What we know:
By secondary structure, this protein is of the alpha+beta class. It is 22% helix and 21% strand. The protein folds into 2 domains: 2-104 and 186-204, no CATH class; 111-172, Orthogonal Bundle (DNA Binding (I), subunit A), CATH 1.10.30.
Amino acid sequence: xxxxGRMTPTATALDARVLVLNRLYNAIRVxxxxxxxxxxxxxxxEIIAVEDGNYxxxxxxxxxxxxxxxxxxxxxxxxxxxxxxxxxxxxxIIRLLGYDRIPQETVKLNRRNIYARDxxxxxYCGKHFSTRELTLDHVTPRVHGGDNSWTNLVCACVKCNxxxxxxxxxxxxxxxxxxxxxxxxxxxxxxxxxSPRYQSWKAFLDEAYWTVELQ
Length: 215
C-alpha cells in the first residue's frame, strides 16, 4: 500500500494510530493502521465509525464503498491509503469480533511517555521545548537514592538541568511547576484526544482502566 492525501510523507498513513475495541466495545489497545488493515482483511475485526452521535459498523468491503463520499466531504478528517485497485480512508476505530478480555497493562515508563506527560515543557522554568532540547531530570538525584520512576523523573531543559546539577530542587533553590505523577492512561493518547480527528475515541475511553501503552 502507498499513501496519498493531506500532504503527508509516504507511509505516514499506515503509521497512523487506530483504537482497538474488544467484542464488548471496551478499549483495549492502540495499534498502527497497517496492523489494523491486516485484521480487517483477515475478517477478525470490523470498523466502528461515530456518525452524528451514533455508532456505525462497517466491514472492509462496505468501508470501501463509502470512500468516495469521504473523499468528497471528509477529506481532511482522514489519512488516506491507496493501491492500484482502491483508495481507502484509515479507520479511527476497529472492533475485534472474537475477543472479550481487557488486558491488564500499565503505562510504560520511557522517555517518550515522560515528554508526553509533561507536554514537552520544562518542569522548572515552564517553557516549551522540542524533544531535542529537553533532558530527563531525577527530582531526587540518584546520588541521593533517587530512582527511575514516574514520580522522580521530569522534563527539564538543558539550562535548568545544568543549574540543578546533582542537587534536589530545594537545594538548588528551584521549584517544580507540577509534581510528577504516574499517569492513569498513556499520555500520548491524551495528546491525541486534543485533535478533532480523534474525538471519536473519547466515547470508548474509560478512565478507570485505560492505562494501555502504544504498541
